[in-house]
Amino acid sequence: MMEDKKTPVREAYYGLPHDVKFCSKCVMSNQRPASAIEFKHTKDSKKTTLNFDSDNVCDACRNGDVKDSIQWDKREEELIKLLDKYRRNDGYYDCIVSGSGGKDSAFQAHVLKYKYGMNPLTVTWPPILYTDYGYENWKNWIEIGGFDNISFKQNGKAMKLLTKLSIENLFHPFQTFILGQKNLAPKIAAKYKIPLIFYGENEAEYGNPIADNSTSLRDKSYFTYNNLDEVYLGGVSIRELTEKYELRLNELMCFLPASASELAETNIDVHYLGYYLKWIPQEVYYYAVENTGFKARPFRTQGTYSKYNSIDDKIDDLHYYTTHVKFGIGRASYDASQEIRNKHLTREDGVALVKKFDGEFPDRYFNEIMEYLDINPDFFRNELSDKHRSPHLWGKNDRGEWQLRHTVSGNGLDD
Ligand SMILES: [Zn+2]
Predict the structure, then answer these.
(1) Cβ contacts of residue 242 below 8 Å, gap of 6+?
(2) Pairing status of strand 402-404 against strand 394-396
(3) Given the DSSP bridges, would you call strands 196-199 and 148-151 parallel, antiparallel or unpaired?
(4) How much distance in Å is there from the Cα of 174 to the middle of ligand 1?
(5) How far is the CA of 338 from the centre of ligand 1 (A)?
(6) Residue 347 Cα, ligand 1 centroid: separation in angstroms?
(7) DSSP character for 149?
(8) How far away, in angstroms, is 55 Cα from ligand 1 center?
(9) What is the CA(362)–ligand 1 centre distance, in A?
(10) What is the pLDDT of residue 216?
(11) 20, 106, 196, 217: most buried by Cβ count inside 10 Å?
């Protein structure tokens, strides 16, 4: 009998594609999940992933090409038309900008107020664990930028338990932050009767189907729900959270989206400013430094090479560590892919940066986070991490260490 030299078909977790491919333009792999509805996320959820075309180019890069051909002056006219419809001169707020005071929200609130004459109310869902820089940037945004702000300090007990469950069940440290960040602004908008909300960029630009980018409006399925029985937090149903974990429904509501009926009454529109204005992270960063006193951290963020992206939350670095474990995609892959698309990096440079920084263990805040969540650090680094390594992505090398089977630089275990 002929020896079978074919690689065995290994199980792929989370519904990821079996064959790992890398985009020929950026450094992203086809394992990157598209954004999903966070409050439906369970252990068994299957991901939809980034689409690659027959030339091996990812949708995010194709979208970058589309962006190059957009007539931005026409888009700005559309924006002005929209703002003219909502702008108020009676002293009341006319729009909401949701954000943490990072570079993106700082830029948005500032241009809307000072360039386009709007009267924004800023709304903040604070990080799980503020970094000093994050807190300072939030404060400067409000004080130097000159904005009213509603910052919603969460019930610490519920926040802690849900974050812990999302890590233990989904290996997803960032879920409570994402939930609040998406859901708070529409609820405040309904309460204060401010029908126009701005977010920065469409997540779709980085991996959702291209069609999602042809509209400035956020799909309502992301921030509304119809039936409480279909809602999960930390991968646990609402019923189980109230019965087994003894959380009251009242303690869970701030993590949940507004109900569809609540929003229907107020007719809220959620727009991406990134649809109307050309969004280049580096330029947005300089703008925020100039106008709202935004400061980058003087040190590099672990797991990547950058200093100014998402630096508000201590748990952020850990989030990207888990994406490296689950999908084989670390923070340098995300950062470099975006910069290649914006032509600030060549693909070759990107490959080198990924090789150097992806998957670096974020130990700066690690012990503090584990202590806050009451998780054993060794349990996190070993059992919990290993349980989430999909066999089609990871194997052990001769030294008994975990190694990716495929990498963008071609030095994986099976490359
Ligand atoms: Zn690409």
Answers:
(1) 248, 249, 252
(2) antiparallel
(3) unpaired
(4) 24
(5) 9
(6) 10
(7) E
(8) 11
(9) 26
(10) 61
(11) 106
Q: How far is the CA of 69 from the centre of ligand 1 (A)?
A: 17
Position 3 scores a pLDDT of 46
Rounded to whole angstroms, how far apart are CA atoms 268 and 263? 7
Map out the domains of the chain with their CATH numbers. Answer: 72-276 (3.40.50)
402 phi and psi angles, rounded to 5 deg: -70, 140
Nearest to 210 by CA among 52, 38, 72, 409: 52
Residues of the chain where predicted confidence (pLDDT) is lower than 70: 1-8, 202-224
Q: What separation in Å is there between the alpha carbon of 126 and the centre of ligand 1?
A: 32
For 272, the token pair is: 């991406």
Determine contact, residues 97/107, Cβ cutoff 8 Å: no
| pLDDT for the residue 226 | 72
Scan for tokens 């042809």, then name that residue: 214
What's this model's pTM, rounded to 2 decimal places? 0.91
**235-271: burial string, b at 16+ Cβ within 10 Å, e else:** bbbbeebeeebebeeebbebbbbbeeeebeeeebbbb
Express each pLDDT in 267-284 by its tens digit: 888 899 999 998 888 899
pLDDT value at position 310? 77
Instruction: Collapse the DSSP code of 137 into the 3-class scheme (helix H, G, I; strand E, B; otherwise coil) and give the result.
Output: helix
Contact 86, 268 (CB under 8 A): no
CB 196 within 8 A of CB 86: yes
The CA 398 to ligand 1 mean position distance, Å, reads 32
* Residue 362 in tokens: 């974020």
Cα 182 to middle of ligand 1, angstroms: 26
Are the C-beta atoms of residues 30 and 52 closer than 8 Å to each other? yes
**Six-digit token pair at 332?**
């340098």
Q: How many angstroms is it from 356 CA to the middle of ligand 1?
A: 19
Strands 224-225 and 120-124: unpaired
**Which residue's entry shows tokens 């299957």?**
46
63 C-alpha to ligand 1 centroid (Å): 9
Question: If you measure from the C-alpha of residue 183 to the centroid of ligand 1, how many angstroms do you get, rounded to a whole number?
Answer: 30
Residue found under tokens 């071609």: 410
Tokens 């000072």: give the residue. Answer: 114
Please give the distance, rounded to the nearest whole angstrom, from the Cα atom of residue 68 to the centre of ligand 1.
Answer: 15
Could you tell me the distance, in angstroms and rounded to a whole number, from the CA of residue 402 to the centre of ligand 1? 26
DSSP codes joined into one string, 26-44:
SS-BTTPBPP--GGG--TT
pLDDT at position 2 is 46
Kindly give the distance from the C-alpha atom of residue 212 to the centroid of ligand 1, in angstroms, as a whole number: 17
